[in-house]
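User: Please fill in residues for this 134-position structure.
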């Protein structure tokens, strides 16, 4: 993404040097160009990665979760990473159509986490029972 932005900036800079452009014009031109360049570049990239980028339903796999914004795969989609796209986990879930409680982690990890939570709850309960027996 950064490369596309850089490339777009170079083009716009060249444009801005030969004619007067308002800040707004420059900004919208950079955005438009970056998107265009990315689309063109994306067309040549491996198809599998491309579809993964657009389909949130297929993004969460057993051992990886694909970021629907940039198409990169992780074990956990962190708040920090989503922040680089200007999104919070809540906004990201909404954008991708995930349920509110959808863990932003690969299936294996989400399952392990759930299991740990259950274990912790069991421990809590056990502790309570002990206390009650006293
Ligand atoms: Zn991303």
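Assistant: Residues filled in for all 134 positions:
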């Amino acid at each position: 993404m950064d490369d596309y932005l850089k490339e777009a900036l170079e083009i716009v800079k060249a444009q801005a040097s030969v004619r007067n452009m308002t800040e707004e014009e420059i900004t919208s031109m950079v955005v438009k160009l970056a998107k265009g360049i990315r689309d063109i570049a994306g067309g040549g990239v491996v198809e599998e990665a491309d579809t993964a980028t657009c389909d949130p339903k297929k993004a969460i796999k057993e051992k990886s979760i694909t970021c629907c914004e940039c198409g990169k795969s992780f074990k956990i989609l962190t708040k920090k990473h989503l922040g680089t796209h200007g999104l919070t986990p809540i906004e990201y879930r909404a954008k991708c159509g995930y349920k509110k409680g959808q863990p932003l982690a690969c299936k294996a990890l989400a399952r392990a986490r759930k299991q740990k939570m259950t274990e912790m709850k069991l421990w809590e309960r056990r502790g309570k029972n002990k206390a009650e027996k006293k």
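For context: Residues 67, 69-70, 72, 81, 85 surround zinc ion (CB under 6 Å).
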